[in-house]
Amino acid sequence: MEIDLRFFATFRDAVGEKERTRTVGDDATVGDLLAALEDEYDGLEGRLLEDGAIAPQLSVLKNGRDVTHLNGPETTLEEGDVVSVFPPVAGG
User: Fold this and answer.
1) Residue 74's domain is classified under what CATH number?
2) Which residue segment(s) compose the domain that 55 sits in?
3) Chain-centroid distance, C-alpha 85
4) CB-CB contact of 89 with 45 (8 Å)
5) Is 72 a domain residue?
6) How would you classify residue 82: left for phi > 0, otherwise alpha for psi between -120 and 50, otherwise beta?
């Protein structure tokens, strides 16, 4: 199945583009997707997952909803989903 990915700030730089479509397996989860992205892009390695959990301060949205309010990394993906990945943001 196909999903759309959106990357922001430093993650956009690491991937080299703001948006892309990706094919994932029918039983794919957000955790599977993040692990695959870490493997594929050197600039994302170790920045998305920590011990199987979504890295602290990382924001991952599925269709506009924060996956921490769904099933976290076990959130299932469905055809046409839009997954947005935001790096930690600091400021004052």
Assistant:
1) 3.10.20.30
2) 2-86
3) 5
4) no
5) yes
6) beta
Measured distance CA(64)–CA(11) in Å, rounded? 18
Percent pLDDT > 70 in the chain is: 97
Rounded-to-integer distance, Cα 91 and Cα 16, Å: 24
Parallel, antiparallel or unpaired: strands 53-54 and 59-62:
unpaired
Q: Token digits for 82?
A: 């839009």
The tens digit of pLDDT for each residue in 57-84 reads 899 999 999 999 999 999 999 999 999 9
| CA atoms of 58 and 8, how far apart (whole Å) | 11
State the burial class of residue 37 (Cβ atoms within 10 Å of its Cβ: 0-12, 13-18, 19+).
buried
- The pTM score is 0.92
Convert the pLDDT of each residue in 29-38 to its tens digit: 999 999 999 9
Is the confidence at residue 21, as pLDDT, over 90? yes
